Amino acid sequence: MLVLWDLFRAFFTIGALTFGGGYAMLPMLEREIVQKRKWATQEDLLNYFAIGQCTPGIIAVNTATFVGHKTKGFWGSIVATLGVVAPSIIIITVIAMVLENFMDIAWVQNAFAGIRVAVCALITASVIKLVKTNVKEYWHIALAVVAFVVVAFVKLSPVYVVVGCAVLSFIFGKREAKA
Known about the structure:
Layout: H1 2-17, H2 22-36, H3 42-54, H4 59-102, H5 106-134, H6 138-154, H7 158-178
C-alpha cells in the first residue's frame, strides 16, 4: 500500500510541476523514477516514453500508466495515472469555479473573445503547416478537400474519415508504386 501512495505522490508532483508538455517532463521522470525511486531503468523509461508517444493519448498519462504497471501491476497503473492527471483536474476545476463568477463582466467576455480568435489563428497556422508538409500530390489535395467537406458539412465522424483516408491512401500509394 505504501508503494501505491508513493506512486500517486510522485506522479502528482510530476503532473503539478511539469509545464510545456510531455517532453518537458522527461528530466523530472528521470530524476524521480530512475534515480530517486529506482522504479525503472533509464532504458525502461525511454522505452515507456517512446511507446507513450506512439499510442493515443497524452504522453504523460501513457508514461505514468506504464511505470505504474511495471511497479505495482494493474493498481499501480491506475494510481500513477490518477496521480499525474489529478493536478490538472484540480486546477481546471478551480479556474472554472472562479471564472463562472466573472463571466458576466464585459472585459472578461472581451478577453475570451480575443482568446477564441487567437486559438482560431493558431489552429489555422497549424493546418497550413500540416498542409505544406503533408499534401504533396494532386490526389492528396482532393482527399483533403473531400475529408474536410465530409466532416464539416456531412457531419460524418472524424474516425470514419481518418480510416477512409488511410484506406484510400493505401490503395493510391500501391497504385503509384506499381507505376
